[in-house]
Design brief:
alpha+beta; tt1808, chain A; six-stranded mixed sheet; globular
């Protein structure tokens, strides 16, 4: 017996289901993926990034949002909840379906988990790239110290810089700030520390 065909949803169907759902899901190219729970070190990293951005912004008109803020890439067929999204200037929202959806992030952080890494690196990133506002995409490894920073170039290509030392700094030009790896991984205990590996 052959495999059952995949069920594809329209964005409108996804949003209707999301309003009624007891848990968050992301929409990627017509498919809906339930969002799984995450490990403590993942949560700590997200919290550190959000706090570091808030401290760097001070009173400037910049904002960061963590995992409860949905982001849409209409051209990319994507609705998702990045670990952290940020911008300076006026945020634009789609209020047509609650909760509202952010339309113009400049920077997106995804903290990698074994269950989501392939999607974050692959299909999701290709769809994020269709967001005209997005200039920086940062992948943060959760199980050891490594940050991959993709920056959109003037011609539309993306350049990658990797960091792995506590003193390394991720420079976020659209946000006019920088984050050290020490601040991103502040007080994080990696699985090898917790499990005694």
């Amino acid at each position: 017996m052959g495999a059952l065909p995949k069920r594809y949803f329209t964005p409108e169907e996804y949003l209707t289901l999301e309003v009624k759902a007891e848990y968050k899901s992301q929409y990627v190219g017509g498919e809906i993926y339930a969002m799984a729970g995450v490990e403590p070190w993942h949560i700590e990293i997200v919290d550190n990034i959000t706090k570091a951005l808030g401290a760097a912004f001070g009173e400037r008109p910049c904002k960061s949002y963590s995992t409860d803020m949905r982001v849409r890439s209409k051209a990319g067929g994507l609705y998702t909840y990045p670990d952290v999204s940020a911008l300076c200037g006026k945020p634009k929202f789609d209020f047509s379906m609650r909760p509202s959806t952010l339309l113009n992030p400049q920077v997106i952080f995804e903290v990698l988990s074994p269950s989501t890494e392939a999607l974050d690196r692959g299909d999701k990133f290709s769809r994020y790239r269709k967001l005209e506002s997005l200039t920086d995409y940062i992948l943060v490894t959760s199980e050891f110290m490594r940050v991959e920073h993709f920056i959109r170039q003037d011609g539309g290509d993306w350049n990658l810089t990797e960091y792995s030392q506590p003193d390394d700094k991720v420079v976020l030009r659209p946000l006019d700030c920088e984050l050290s790896l020490a601040s991103i991984y502040r007080r994080v205990e990696f699985p090898s520390d917790l499990l005694g590996e």
